[in-house]
Specification:
Elements: E1 2-6, H1 9-26, E2 31-34, H2 38-54, E3 62-65, E4 67-69, H3 80-87, E5 99-100, H4 109-122, E6 128-131, E7 153-156, H5 159-165, E8 178-181, H6 184-188, E9 192-197, H7 203-211, E10 229-234, H8 244-253
Parallel strand pairs: 1-10, 2-3, 2-6, 3-5, 6-9, 9-10
Antiparallel strand pairs: 4-8, 7-8
Helix pairs in contact: 1-2
Bound molecules: 2-amino-2-deoxy-6-O-phosphono-alpha-D-glucopyranose.
2-amino-2-deoxy-6-O-phosphono-alpha-D-glucopyranose binds near residues 39 and 67.
């Protein structure tokens, strides 16, 4: 794992955007795992900017989102399909037929979860999975006690997650209490992980995820098991990290980071 701390939120997401852009340029058929949430809004705006200004080409990219609320149609502004259209898909040259999210309206949720796993396998697995972290330590909607080997399934959301996300709904009472999410095991199968974390409200949970013990109580701590992880955060989110000096030294000195310094 490498932890890169950038001074501000825009600089942290800009680095993440450039890493994603580099992955797309290196492999135009990239299978890109996507995340939602407030943290990602700036990152998606920056990817749109890279598309417009530098011609970043999404035409062959396939995308798989981590999760979707159960019971919301794609047309509902609270759904993650709507979020993705609004922040990214409508503004770049992605073929929407190559963009996948779990179907939150599926009649048979279990079958939908199996189908989603099959789809990921059919394209050869996810190359690069983008992740955010919730204050409950979740990646995707893998709430505390999610098995470290869990697969795509439906999960009940914790009261903390409901409190955190209900503000995103114009009618907060419409926020669903369940979601379909890739499992921790599904996420760990991606070839590379990129966790983007910003803001002081995430400082405590980020320190637990990165430097604490691996535990299903903090699903994000499972990324410690993965052989290829970049964690990118701003100074506020990094406030509780003990190893900050070492992480900064790596960024200043390792040749792979030279183009990004
Ligand atoms: C949401 C999503 C996660 C996201 C997290 C953080 O509930 N399911 O994938 O990473 O919570 O969201 P935010 O960036 O708004 O803090």
């Amino acid at each position: 794992m490498e932890v890169i701390v950038r001074p501000t939120n825009p600089e942290a997401s800009w680095l993440a955007a450039r890493l994603i852009a580099a992955a797309i340029r290196a492999k135009p058929h990239l299978v890109l795992g996507l995340a939602t949430g407030r943290t990602m809004e700036r990152l998606y705006a920056q990817l749109v900017q890279l598309h417009r200004e530098e011609g970043l080409d999404f035409s062959l990219v396939r995308t798989f989102n981590l999760d979707e609320y159960i019971g919301l149609p794609a047309t509902h502004p609270g759904s993650y399909r709507y979020y993705m259209n609004r922040h990214l898909f409508d503004h770049v040259n992605l073929d929407k037929r190559n963009t996948f999210l779990p179907d939150g309206m599926a009649g048979d949720v279990e079958a939908e979860c199996e189908r989603y796993e099959r789809r990921i396998a059919e394209v050869g697995g996810i190359d690069l999975q983008l992740l955010g972290i919730g204050r409950a330590g979740h990646i995707g909607f893998n709430e505390p006690l999610s098995a470290l080997r869990s697969r795509t399934r439906s999960k009940a959301l914790t009261p903390m997650t409901v409190a955190e996300n209900r503000g995103e709904f114009s009618k907060p009472e419409e926020m669903p209490r369940r979601a379909i999410t890739m499992g921790v095991g599904t996420i760990l199968e991606a070839r590379q992980l990129l966790l983007l974390v910003t803001g002081e409200t995430k400082a405590e949970i980020l320190a637990k995820a990165v430097e604490g013990p691996i535990t299903s109580m903090v699903s994000a701590s499972a990324i410690q098991l993965h052989p290829s992880v970049h964690v990118i955060c701003d100074a506020e989110a990094a406030a509780r990290l003990n190893g900050r000096e070492y992480y900064d030294w790596i960024f200043r000195n390792e040749p792979e980071w030279a183009p990004y310094r």
